[in-house]
Amino acid sequence: MKMPTIRIEATSTVQYAKISLKGKLVYSTQQMAKQTLIELFQQAEHDVYLFDVSELAFIDSTGLSMFVHLLKQETDKQKTFLFVFADNQAIQKLFTIAKLHRLFIFVPTERDAVRWLASRSRQPVNR
What we know:
By secondary structure, this protein is of the alpha/beta class. It has helices at 27-43, 61-75, 89-97, 110-121; strands at residues 6-12, 17-25, 48-59, 80-84, 105-107.
């Protein structure tokens, strides 16, 4: 029986760190994924992490909870987590069923993420 795998690729733009997840984020892969993401966070120079989960084949409850744990870890650092689903409606539905839309920002495409970031930067600062 073949073990599930996860592949994580990180790139950076002027506005955000983009992290692409491919494969299966399940019990047997989430610990490695979590460690990789923590290392990426330590190296990141951005306040925004864009998670591209459009090529994620499957995620279970341990994978979903990993994102919540990472958000809690990064909250005091004022980080923003954006999730791009593209046409991966099955994964988006799992995130929504878990009510993660209350914690994270969901956008259909990376272009929508850029638009969201631009609109956020035009908002007045509360004093």
